[in-house]
Amino acid sequence: MSVTREMRLYLEPELRRSALAGEHNFLNITLSLLREAGFAVEILGTGAEERAAAPGRPGYALFHMEQPTHDRAMTFRRVYQYPFWTIEPFAERWQWRVAQTEFPAGRISRRQADQFYARWQKRLFGEAPQRTTRDGFVYVPLQGRLLNHRSFQHCAPVEMLERILERDPQRDVVATLHPKEVYTPDEIRAVERLCDRFPRLTISDRDMVTCLTHCDYVVTENSSAAFSGFFFGKPALLFAGIDFHHIALGPEDFDRIASHDPDYAGYIWWFWQEMSINAGREDAPLKVSLALRRCGVPLSRYDVTNE
């Protein structure tokens, strides 16, 4: 198929309405760049029918938080908080460019990073990060499919819980269930059996901020709660692939996790200001254009393309 200068965005209803009304800053920047480069842009809805039709349409496609459907398609999504975004050829976060890039620890502007970090600590969590304690428990934010060991995970989430309890016999373990997940009776029974075997394990309804304020460290497959924990200075041990793995540890490092003390401020600055697209900064158009080019979208006649 000849690749033409066409771009179709596939968006859920509210986001499509916002894009059509010119109310979404990141999409405004992206659409302006495409139109300036001579692209015809179409803003469509999404769903099974549109996704099935996308590969047969000419040009390129941009999905929101969905798996691209063909080799001329990409996905965009918020990087945990506004106004930070990314455009990637894969929906899987552990395949993103940032996940494949080494964190340049020690080469970060200290003053710039510390100011940025303090500003976002307060903006996201108020004074809570300044009142942290370590009260002798491990915080485990659970996600879904507790009995399944998926390809990007070290083990199933229930097995992860068991390993934590065995590897850290001193601390209590406070696990929380994801509010948007629907757990099966088998999953609930499996967790209850673990609670019976290990009285130190509690399934709690405590909110994330409370847990992050008082835990010793965080263990999860790849919950974004671990990323939030960086703002509290709480180390994370991850049992699955994710984009923010650089300053976290893995299961093989369990003996080091309680004393792990990476450069949280430097990492947050690098992750958001260097590796993401901050839609509120003057360099946002440049970063969007670089991201599109990395995904194979020709924004000028000098770009390599198969047109």
Features:
307 residues; alpha/beta; Rossmann fold; 11 strands; 17% strand; globular
Quick overview:
With 307 residues, the protein is α/β, with parallel strands linked by helices. Helix content is 34%, strand content 17%.
CATH class of the largest domain: Alpha Beta
CATH topology name of the largest domain, in short, is: Rossmann fold
Q: What's the CATH H-level homologous superfamily of the largest domain?
A: Glycogen Phosphorylase B
Low-confidence stretches: none
Count of DSSP helices?
Answer: 11
SSE-based structural type: alpha/beta
Biggest sheet record: 6 strands, mixed
Average pLDDT number: 95
> Which percent range describes the beta-strand content?
15-25%
- Straight-line N-to-C gap: 9 Å
The strand line-up of the biggest sheet is 2-1-3-4-5-11
- Can you tell me the overall shape? globular
Rounded Rg: 21 Å
Provide the succession of SSEs: EHHEHEEEHHEHEHEHEHEHEH
Helix fraction, binned, reads: 25-40%
Named at the architecture level, the CATH assignment of the largest domain is 3-Layer(aba) Sandwich
